[in-house]
Fold this sequence. Notes:
Distance between the termini: 25 Å
Largest sheet: 4 strands, antiparallel
Number of strands: 4
Radius of gyration: 17 Å
Mean pLDDT: 91
Strand content: 15-25%
Order of helices and strands: EHEHHHEHHHEHHH
Strand order of the largest sheet: 2-3-1-4
Oligomer: single chain
Number of helices: 10
Amino acid sequence: MRRLTGTETVTDLDDYLTTVDAVGDETGCTVQVFDARYVIDETHLRRALTFADRAFTRGENVARDRGVEILLYAAGRRQIDRALEMGVSEGTLPVVALVAADEGAVDETATAETTADETTTADREPDARERRAVDRLRERSSFDPGTVAPERDRVRAFFGVTDRELAATDGDLAALVHERVALLDVQK
């Protein structure tokens, strides 16, 4: 898994999502973009990816699309319409893109640029495909790379974390969000 952070200007959400999906399809990766204000840390996304992949392996997935299943776990919700709040929207906002190679997929960009004999095993490797997907996302004219941070109050409200809950645990907000991601599996 790779993560790309920065600021993105989305003028037409459908066009933006079509472009993101095309990058994923061409590189053999799942690309899911989040409003970074809701993502507490990298572990949050890694756990969502792990649980989503496990759900597909077990045949327990709710969504047909891997990216949507990842979004559901990241949001700690089973309802897609409620989870979409964590996704991108029109306007200029901080984003974090999760890029994860799809098992057994081929990078169409690498194979389109070379003949079958020239395509190396490295071009098919998940790490290489993820790097190419990140590079393609960075090339977007509206993407401004940089560090983004979650908005603690927004995260607390979205995940329903109260002062009382924070006071009652030895963990911090990140630990409670990680727990929400894990509990989604139990709540099914």
